[in-house]
Amino acid sequence: MKDTMTAPEPPLLELRGVEKRFALDQSLLERLRFRDGRLRMDRREVHAVNNVSLTVNRGEALCVVGETGCGKSTVARLVAGLLAPSAGEVRYAGARIDNQSRRDLAPLRRRMQMIFQNPYASLNPRMTIAQALEEPVRYHNPDLAPVDVRAKVLEVMQAVGVDPSWRDRYPHEFSGGQRQRIAIARALTVDPEFIIADEPLAALDVSIQAQVLNLMLEAKVARGLTYLFITHDLSVVQHFGTRVAVLYLGTVCELADTATLFAAPKHPYTRALLSAVPQMRDGMPDHIRLKGEIPTPITLPKGCPFETRCAYADQRCRVEKPRPQQQRDGSLVACHAVEEGRVD
Ligand SMILES: Nc1ncnc2c1ncn2[C@@H]1O[C@H](COP(=O)(O)OP(=O)(O)OP(=O)(O)O)[C@@H](O)[C@H]1O
């Protein structure tokens, strides 16, 4: 009899209750304080990422959005293994990766590639483009013949629109947009399945951003890529994302399919974010101007992180952290006011 009980495929990426705290960035002298008349170490921490749980399935492009300092880059770095979580788990294709050694993670390095805001971060200024692109191919395929290494690099250069006759030039000879194409090519040379892109368009001229975004979209379709895409730009999310996680003070306040999020944003913070972009205000109130203090990630509010700026906040919001609740349309929203039907 044919076995129809095959186990469902785990998500490609899963974050389970992930936290990241950084020691306050102070000199040793600044950290020493007199308290109760005694000299003590100031052990306050920056709570950059707080209890974040999310999944990314194969073929998806999950966009993470939010204001500056909300923890987007920290999430990307935790996933890429550049930072270790203070608590929680990061899983890739079902296996925990946050507690593995660099050596154990080596095979994963090929499957998961990162693209940064500043392509200089991934391009060595002393290497020609050919050297920069051949290096990862050789590293991950030590037995590949030099002719095949060159063929792979040629294929990728053509795919991203970098003229192969420029192979002996150095990164400084290229414009920002071309450098980002080269950084994308470098990521693609090793045939990854998952790309973590951290604000890959933010440093580019507006006229170039659409070209680079389309290139990443083409690569997604042609190579079956899955993306975790960090951005503060909602029009990029609308164009690129299949799902969106809205981050506020290191906490996911709303997680939804892109179409659902833009058609029916629910969390008061998401609504404020969308209302700030005139072309996205369809059926929404005019620009919602947020008032109130943004708490520091050093002293987080006891209840909802958004409570100090939320027009709907009441006593419950001040004392009790909202948990993500599944909505009828499948989105997850962490908001007492939404749960109680108080947001119109
Ligand atoms: N290495 C570090 N040491 C101390 N604090 C840090 C460190 N890295 C990040 N932070 C703090 O953690 C919080 C989240 O930072 P993060 O860079 O992840 O935010 P972001 O949303 O990516 O911001 P941006 O859009 O400005 O890049 C911020 O308060 C930041 O100052």
TrEMBL record:
GO terms classed as biological process: peptide transport; transmembrane transport
Molecular function in Gene Ontology: ATP binding; ATP hydrolysis activity
Keywords linked to the UniProt accession: ATP-binding, Nucleotide-binding, Transport
Compartment(s): Cell inner membrane
A GO term from the CC aspect: plasma membrane
Claim: Amino-acid biosynthesis is one of the keywords in the record: no
Chief location: membrane
Domain of life assignment: Bacteria
Membrane topology of this protein: Peripheral membrane protein
Every ABC transporter domain range: 32-274
Classification via SMART domains: AAA (SM00382)
Family indicated by similarity: Belongs to the ABC transporter superfamily.
Name of the molecule in the record: Stage 0 sporulation protein KE
Annotated source species: Thalassovita autumnalis
Classification of source organism: Bacteria, Pseudomonadati, Pseudomonadota, Alphaproteobacteria, Rhodobacterales
Protein's gene: oppF_6
